[in-house]
Amino acid sequence: MTMNVRRGWLQLLTLSLCCFLLTGCWDRKELNQLAITSATAVDWDGKVWTISYQVVIPQSIANPNTGGSPGQQAPVMVFSTSGGSIRGAVQQSSLEMPRSLFFAHNRVIVIGEKAAKEGISQLLDVYLRNSDSRETVVLLVTSGEGRTILEQIVPLEKLPGAAIKNMIHNEAMNGSNFQQVPIYQMMMGITSDAPFTLVPEIVISGEGENTTIATLKKTSFTNKLKLGRMAVFKKDKLAGWFTAEQEYGISWIRDTIQQTTLFFGCTEDSKDIKAALRVDQSKSKLKPIFADDGHLVMYVDVETSGTLNENGCPSDPTQPKDLHTMERIASAEITRLMTNAFQVAVQNNLDVFHFADVIHKHDPKIWKKVKPDWEAHFAKLELATNVRVKITRIGMSGKAFKEMSKETGE
């Protein structure tokens, strides 16, 4: 009995001592003390940095059954602060905000063109050093001021910042013209052998702006937020732009095609789009080939398969001959897209394909030789392509409806 009592007291004492080892929440902050930021913008006027914040208004997005009053006010408010440095500008927010800014839920950062040309190394440094910042936040560029983008009300989503993030995610997964660029990917790009990073542009398409919730009561809009071109960063500074079509060709070379729809004509030289192939699978492989004379050729091998979901051509895909012809035309279109993008990149000396990284990985000894004057080698680089398209399904009909209707009329 005595031994059991002693053992019980010993166990109680051990548990009590363990409680002292448990840590508490040393930097706790109540929700009503935080201003949750869903998106930020960075602008530069030549002298100071201006940081804009899209702050969530909780009572506006809350469920009315829990005391919220949605529809009475905008779901977010946007305000800006300025300073000689990015963190200095953020510090100024305490002078005009009743709550402290909370960036852990920040979805996107919109960078104004002037700030992009000045360089965003300070922004990257801030995200590396602060624990409340997420390296998964997505970067976007705009040709005007970033704040203007944050002020827009977006249909279908309560929070514009979340809507912008979902927009680029949806495009990356279903269109593949643009890719999401988290801030950590930008950092990796800057430190790679080919320090070029492609960042999507976001623009206001149409006339006017949607800055009030009154626009949500309409069934149509005269303008909307839209993805535009692709900005090219050399290290941390804006170096140029690619069109959406050129970026599409880059995606085929870089093997970043997820799912997309490839449009092509009835002949290889036709510019009249008549057919569409829903790409379900695609794989691109890069292989550098070095000639004895030092000449360098980058070999691109592309294998693609998908479903024919539109056909306005007179060909009948149920016939093997016509089906192979359509596959050849689709292959030629992919080759054209890649070749055009490659030519523009070479003309501007922008290794956005990261060929330098491919060579370094494939043959470190060769890369050591060409690295000192890589720009000169890149300017003389040739692209060799081999594209194979396989139409695995043709849908629920054979000939185009127009052709079938002609036969019926006869």
Structural class: alpha/beta
Mean pLDDT: 86
Cα end-to-end separation: 106 Å
Principal-axis shape:
globular
Helical content class: 25-40%
Q: Total strand count, please? A: 13
Rounded to the nearest angstrom, the radius of gyration is 28 Å
Along the chain, the helix and strand elements come as HEEHEHEEHHEHHHEEEHEEEHHHHEH
How many helices? The count is: 14
Percent of sequence in beta strands: 25-35%
Described by strand count, sense and barrel closure, the largest sheet is: 6 strands, mixed
Which ranges are low-confidence, i.e. pLDDT below 50, for 5 or more consecutive residues? none
What does this protein structure show overall?
With 410 residues, this protein is of the alpha/beta class. Helix content is 35%, strand content 29%. Strands 1, 2, 3, 4, 5 and 6 form a six-stranded mixed sheet that branches. Strands 10-11-12-13 form a four-stranded mixed sheet, with helices on both faces. Strands 7-8-9 form a three-stranded antiparallel sheet. Helix 9 packs across helix 10 and helix 11 packs across helix 12. It is globular.
Features:
six-stranded mixed sheet
Quick summary:
The protein has helices spanning 2-21, 58-61, 86-91, 113-118, 121-129, 146-150, 160-174, 183-190, 244-254, 320-347, 355-362, 364-370, 374-379, 401-409; strands at residues 34-44, 49-56, 76-83, 100-102, 108-112, 138-142, 196-206, 223-234, 237-242, 260-264, 275-290, 296-311, 382-393.
Which helices and strands, and how do they pair?
Layout: H1 2-21, E1 34-44, E2 49-56, H2 58-61, E3 76-83, H3 86-91, E4 100-102, E5 108-112, H4 113-118, H5 121-129, E6 138-142, H6 146-150, H7 160-174, H8 183-190, E7 196-206, E8 223-234, E9 237-242, H9 244-254, E10 260-264, E11 275-290, E12 296-311, H10 320-347, H11 355-362, H12 364-370, H13 374-379, E13 382-393, H14 401-409
Parallel strand pairs: 1-4, 1-5, 5-6, 12-13
Antiparallel strand pairs: 1-2, 2-3, 7-8, 8-9, 10-11, 11-12
Helix pairs in contact: 9-10, 11-12
